[in-house]
Every structure is written in structure tokens, then in C-alpha cells.
Specification:
49% of the residues lie in helices and 10% in strands. The chain is an alpha/beta fold. Helix 4 packs across helix 5, helix 5 packs across helix 7 and helix 11 runs parallel beside helix 12. Strands 1, 4, 5, 6, 7 and 8 form a six-stranded mixed β-sheet that branches. It has 19 helices and eight strands.
Length: 469
Amino acid sequence: MAMGTKKGRERQEEIWYHAELAEAPGHPFYRKLEAKLKEASFDKFCEQECKRYYADGVGRPSLVPGVYFRLLLIGFFEGIDSERGIAWRVADSLSLRQFLGYGIDENTPDHVTISRTRRLLDASTHKKIFDWVLERVAQAGLVKGKTVGVDSTTLEANAAMKSIVRRDTGDKYMDFLKKVAEAEGIEAPDAAALLRLDRKRKKKTSNEDWESPADPEAEITKLKDGRTALAYKVEQAVDMETGAIVAVTTHGGAAADSTTVVETLCEAGEAMAELIDVKDAKGKYPVAGEGIAEVVADKGYHSNQTMVEIPELSLRTYVAEPDRGPRNWDGKTAERDAVYANRRRIRGERGKRLQAQRGEKIERNFAHQFDTGGMDRLYVRGRENVHKRLLIQAAACNLALLLRSMHGAGKPRAAHDMKLEVVFAFIRLVLDQLEFQSAENGPWSRPQLLAKEPQSFRKRFCRCSHRPL
């Protein structure tokens, strides 16, 4: 199959009968996003990186690489979780057709095409797209690189717990319970009796004994809401000064934070090394030349192992410490010194300030990506496929940061609400002027209907001091 290109999809109809073509005015947010991508030659970069996956001049042209990555970006900006949902939304929206470069008489890519393209392009190519976006963010001065925060969350996999089987025998869960009942001499004639037996016995659904035939790389773990499910864990390193995501790693859902943090920090260190020579618009180097110096994390990352391993990377730790009570340090001099040094730092003014910023700089990114960004659960299988989606989701979050710094809005909804903000600001200005002019003519009160902004407006802009995406 030959690789499709943006130039190969250019049409000349609008040159000859532009007035007769039906078109939408386009969403102002997507117009600005497209202008930024076009200015930085996004399509040219994508086509160069993806060229090796296609034959030259053989077969039908494929989905244009730039269009494929735009489709995944739309998933973040529109809050859509699945590729099927993205395909339906694009086919239904004139504004998104315009953003992708599809006319009203053309069929937009279906979910099968999107899925096949994702499987064709490997994770390293998706990583290069993430790095390309991160470089644009660095050029805007939004990557400093001195202090990074690390955090993780679990995402429910596209596999059901009821489908798990034994790794050794391949038995399903109910078949295994029947064997347990027979071995104990208990009569369990139906499924309800087996489940009652299961509730009484100690749970043994460990990842060493059980797996999902649909997604063997997903691991059994407890989610944030308390449910036990098959899941993956995503861990990210975030610039604590700007909120830019500098590294993304993907792990099995049951992986402990203390066992994955070093890998994530190494990814972040490599990313910062690549950005040291990047200049901003003023010709300065925004990324710290010495690289990452400090690491901020929550209590889940505190352990003797991490307190020793992270300083070995020449990094200072600001990791919140859980209350473990009196501890025995016999034969653990290195661990004791590392824990005490971290404790001293987090109790200082800078340590308290960095811990307070975790919610705004780190957890807020997770909320935008996995709550409003439409990835609270996964609809792809396999760790590599999950990692591909997570990389582009993080790249989209960085693009939102870049657009917010340039235009004040990082998502289509925020751009729409900015118009309301201007309208109500104008109304308040007019009412204040009327009050001032009528002061000499007697008492005057502003109309209650105009004085009260819509509830959704007040809730969005007044519930906190942070500006929304």
C-alpha cells in the first residue's frame, strides 16, 4: 500500500466553484490549532516518519499520517474514548471535516481504518510525535526541566474479569471453583452455590495464577473507585513550573509505583537532554542546561528502595512520607540517611510549596486526559497499543497547554466559554456605566436577570482561581 500524503489529497474544486460548495465557518479553536500545526510543518514531519511503513507507488493510497494523528487528537479535545466514537463524530461534524481536510462529499475514515493504521505504526513513531509536540512547547518557553513531578493512575483494560483463566490449566473461574468444591467434599450443584463458597474462602486471584485470554498483558488490580478489574497503569513526569508532560510510560495495572518511577525519570531525563539546545522566540534556552535536579511525588512513591535509587540518579527527592511509626534502621544506614534527607526537605518551605502544587500541575493533567479527555477506560488491547494511545493523549494535552498560553483556551469548550466571558464583561461594564449616570437622578438597581450570569458560567469560572483549559 502506498502512503497517502496531504498534497495528494488537495482538491481544486474551490478554485473553480467555491461559492457553490457547502461548508461550515469552522470552529475558531480548530482553526487556530490547524494554523499552529501548519506553521510547524506537522504533516511533513508525520509523512517523513511514517514513510518506511509503506511501499513506494504500489497499491491504493493509505490514510494520510497527519490525518491519523489528528483523529487521535480529536479524541482528546472532544472527550471521546474509542476509535469508533472518533470516526462517528468526525463523519457528523462539518468543523472537524474542515480540520481534517475532508469535503462534504467525501467519506471520512472509519474506525477500521484508524485501528489498522494504529497497528501498522509502531510505538516509537507515536513517541516521535509526542517528542515533536514537546519541542514546540519548549520553543514557546513552557518547558523548564529543573523540577519534575511524577504520578500514576490505573485505567480499566478492554477485558472482563469474568473471562480470566488459570495460567497453568487454562480453566475458567467457575470451573476452578467446581474443582475446589470437589476437593473439599462440598456439594455445590449450581453457580449460586459456587459463588457462596467463593465468598467464604480467601481470595487467590493473583496475577501469578490468572490472566485474561483477551489481553494477557493486562493485570488484575484495584481501581481508584474500589473495584477489582484488569487494568494498565500510566505514569507521567510533569514539569512542575509549567505543567508540560515530559515523559509517559505504561505498565501492568498491578505494578507498584516504587518499581516504575526510575524508568519514568530516565525517560524524562532523555527528553530534557534532547531539548537543551532548543531556543524560544527570544533566542534564549528555556530548558535548564543541567537537566532534571528535583523530583516531586506523593506517598505512594515513598520506600527505602526509591529513596536510595533516585539520589543515585543525582536527583533530590521531595516525596511525601506516610506515617509508618517508629522504624528499625539496623543495617540500613544508606536507607536511613536517604529517608531523613527527604524528610528534612519536604518539611521545609520549598518542599511544602512543591507538594501543594501537585494538584494543579500533575493531577489536573490526569483529569484533563482521563476524565474530560475521554480515556477513563481503554478500548484497545495490548500494552503497546495502550502506550500508543497514551502518548498521543499526552501530546494533545501539551498542545492544549501551548494553545492556552497563546490564545487563552486549550479546548473547544473553553474557547466557546471565552465568548460568554467577553459578553458578560461587556454587560457588566454597561450596567456599571448606567449606575454611574443615574446616580444624580435617583436610586437605580441593575436588572436581576442581567446581573446573574448563567449557573454553568459561574460554576466554570468561579469555582477556583485556576484558568480552565
